[in-house]
Amino acid sequence: MKIKLNGLTRLINPSKYSYAWKGKLSNYTLLEESEEQKSEYMIAFSGKSQSFCIGMVDIIGSTKISANLHEREWCKYYVIFLNSMAKILQRFGAVPVKNGGDSLLYFFPESADPKKKFGFMSCLECNLAMAESHYILSDAIKKQGLPELNYRISSDCGKVVVMEPNALSPMDIIGPPVNMCAKINRNAPKNGVVIGGDMYEMVKDLDDYRYKQTDGFSIGLKYSYPVYTVERKV
């Protein structure tokens, strides 16, 4: 997949992002091609911002769940979750940028142009596909004798700064939409989807979805940041 970031065309293959556990915790990594590992972890910013839809899927109660599992079990638990989510991301053209083990942060390159709704629809469809895959994913988890899996999905949009890739971090993004996406995740219903107010303004006229305002997120000002649940219209 070719995406344009800050005026430069970069080649990204979402199918390369798969997760595997090889029996040792140190080998449980995000597998991808990279340059020879550098001796120091250096962070460099591109200095330019670009607007994208950002998404996050996060397991509910993962700390308590993993505390009651052996290493082999919780590694398998996370691998099933991450691989299932990664396959859905690939279907909708999303790019994963941060793997927290129990969570995954991603963005949609096609959403860079706010005048084109395709990227925003891809984000909504991807998030809803994650929610709708819960029953299949739960069945796969159950067959492995592992605890029930539940998660929350959140998205927002806005300008982010792209971090220059290096040997340890091939791509990363930072900015208010990333922070807000993480903060409003707790507002999502179990195995459901929420979006922030900025994204709502971009998608509210799309007829295939039903939005309902839920508890907002306090940002320390007089008014809270609006948050909306998203469902398909029946």
Describe the overall structure.
This protein is α+β, with helices and mostly antiparallel strands. The chain has one domain (about 50-230): Alpha-Beta Plaits, CATH 3.30.70.1230. It is built from 6 helices and 12 strands. The protein is globular and about 45 Å long.
What's the short story on this structure?
The chain is 29% helix and 33% strand.
CATH fold topology: Alpha-Beta Plaits
Number of DSSP-assigned strands:
12
Return Rg in Å.
Answer: 18 Å
Q: Uncertain regions: pLDDT < 50 for 5+ in a row?
A: 23-39
What is the arithmetic mean of pLDDT?
Answer: 82
| Biggest beta sheet attributes | 8 strands, mixed
Silhouette: globular
CATH class, named Alpha Beta
Strand content: 25-35%
| CATH homologous superfamily assignment | Nucleotide cyclase, GGDEF domain
Supply the helix-strand structural class.
alpha+beta
Total separate domains: 1
Q: What is the correct CATH architecture?
A: 2-Layer Sandwich
Query: What's the helix-strand series?
Result: EEEEEHHEEHHEEHEHEE
